[in-house]
Amino acid sequence: MSHLLEIRNLKITFGGLDALSGLDFHVDEGEIVSVIGPNGAGKTTFFNAITGMVEPADGDIIFEGDSIRGLEPHQVTGLGIARTFQNVRLFPNMTVLENIMVAQHCRTSQLVFGALLQTRAFKREEEEIRARAENVLGFFGSRLIGYRLEQPAFVLSYANRRRLEIARAMATQPRLLLLDEPTAALDLGGREALVATLADLAADPSTPPMVQVTHHVEEIPPGFTHALLLEAGRVVNAGPLADVVTEQALSSCYGLDLRLTQAAGRWAVRVNGSGR
Amino acid sequence: MSATMTSTSAATYRPRVSDQDWRRIATWGGLCALFLILVSLIGMPVGLDRRILIHPVLSLGYLSLLWIPLVLGYVVSKHVVLEGMAAPEPGARDLVTGLVTGAIGGVGLAVLLLGIDNFNIRDPLVNWSPQLLSLLTYERGLGFGAVACIAICAFLGLVGSSIHVVPATVRRVVSFAAYGLLLVSVLESAISDLSEGFGLEWLTDIMFAKRGGLTLISSVVLALLLGALSVVFGGRVKSATTRYRELEGLERQRASTILFVVVAALCIVLPLFLGTIMNELLANVGLFLLLALGLNIVVGLAGILDLGYVAFFAVGGYTTAVLTSADSPFFAPELHFGITLVIVVVIAGITGLVIGAPVIRMRGDYLAIVTLGFGEIIRLLFMSDWLKPYFGGAQGITNVPGVDLGFATIKGTDPRSVFYLVLVFCALAIYISWRLQVSRLGRAWMAIREDEQVAEAMGINTVNTKLLAFVVGAILASFSGAILVAKVGSVFPNSFMILVSIIILVVVIVGGMGNILGVIVGSFVLIGVLGGPRQPGLLQEFQTFKLLIYGALLVFMMLKRPEGLVPSARRSQELHQEEFLQDVWLKGEDHEAEEASEHAAETGPGGDEPPT
User: Fold this and answer.
1) ipTM of this predicted complex?
2) A154 in contact with chain B, both atoms CB, cutoff 8 A
3) Which residue, of A272, B127, B323, B417, has the fewest CB within 10 Å?
């Protein structure tokens, strides 16, 4: 059986340090995965390797049956893997609309002559790009449309920047969406709002499979199906969410005596006693 | 923004006159003295004294000193108004501040006079001269000169600071009259040229004195006239532009079309009334505008800092010379300019690819340095003995024919025809820049400028896209080179010094990076008024000081107005981002409302809120 994304024995070293040491993992159609682990577990490196931003020392990455190891990042995006960044990296001086329009670059084709001669194909493509951009932004309610379309991205609030980044990744029309700590550095209200958005996204049948990196089990939205628990570049546990996120696994991972509770699809964790 | 600031911060207080920030005054006064001495020793007052602005009273030489206490007096008494902070009311205290600052500057100048009188260090300092002394003392002895310097500088400092104190209408009328007078007297040659074309010599004969400069009477009349004009038209221009900005859809389109037709008609009709010198000047401005528009795509849009841009200018020039000149040493097909142009595009494109391919993978500083090298390499290749059999070495290629259009020939001896040729190409370049800017490619370029790594991650092939920017820029530069060679009739390697690259870059930066209108204004102000690397501008007297002024202007712009003379609205926001965000935060309009509605959305049923 072929997986959507399959990672075999992935090894990445930074100057002798193993960031990832022999990682095996796969994502299938319909799965929504949360990657959990402490700082330095290799979560972001894992994303960077998939998207071609770092070169693996060993192993293979197979997407839809073909190896994508060694491809340029833009080729990976062209094949259908889109990502967001841990610390928001928008194009700050481009407008909200332009941020989304530019993300459709690899799905469109017009170059110099279309623009100069204003060919019919060029105009049609521009209209399509714009319509698609508004459609993508429409998913986030009224927060990013209307008068906001023409605002430069840097005037947005932090939460809206996070949303815009997710929208931008979605605009590349991915077959797999990688979200790198989408709720990092948000206050409680912002976090809850974004978790709700992610839950909506997870419930939407048109959304491609997603992989979300997070530090905290509280940030796993309802509707997520699978999880991958990483520690020091190794897989601790992978599989259905309920099997992976266990008190015992988390406790050993973080080196603390943790108590895990679950209610209404959400998880919560608390340290028992003073820890170590 | 400033209007809303002053209206919201109602709290002001009236400071005491003696309540001065002496440290600030000392700093700015010292700066004033330093500038005055520096400008004197550079030789500006003596060198520019021959150019008279207002017949018996004011020459450009004196003006080169007088503006200093005036401007510093203005700056030192300016208060930064902070939102929510009580601001001091402009008044007598500021006048004293300006006066003292100017006086300190004047003392500096007086000390210089004393020094010139008593010591002779002309050996290293060429301008440590009796001429400077007699100029600054009005030939009436040291004592008078020193007192006059201090008094005049103090007065000018006072005038500078009074700009904050006088009512807005007075300020507008006076500044309008002063700017107008300055413009008319500085642009004397252009105005005489223009009035000759319209058959209005009698008017300029009355206005200007025989030895140049406005006469005293006509300058008074002109000032009154300009002042009256500013009263009549005050605010109308501004309201018209805001009204134009607020227009939408079809109406906006119609207004733009009318504006375009007017500008186009002006460009076509005006040269008919201009003389040789002015047409020549406009043609030079056009040539540099063409270069600047190309560089604007490379630097302003794609963010590739290319310091060797002159290479493509040279390639365009040499290709044209080889293909059209009968004197081309090795290969002289003597093609027509039109056919040549096609080949020029191809060759410039290929050169862009060849230079770009190894360079484009580098980032920032490295790229700038390597392109700088390539720019010089190209020039040295054309100059080398090795390629002398093909390109003529330092002697270059001469006898390049003009552009034969069948009904007319465009040659350097007829600058008007050259101007029209340049105009066509500038229009083309503006169209190309404009269309590309709002296309898929333009957006990709901007994304690369913003964050190359993320642009790559969003599916943009950054290497190819940047190469494309390089090639488009190269082609525009090669057009300029081709026209230059056809205009001058010859080509020499020394026309393509590194200085050309730098000056084009300064034009783009000073005008406003990434903004077509800014680049146009930049080339008119810099190339038209100050002059290009070899081309004289309107202020021919500044020839010797041109590079100094370029440098000073660049430093000033980078510090105080990095968005350029004509910023795109967004770019100025970007460069003053912090202030902008602080304003928003202090006013608390947008973000609080948004945060509140976000919390509401989380508890309430729908996330839809009306735009604040």
Assistant:
1) 0.92
2) yes
3) A272
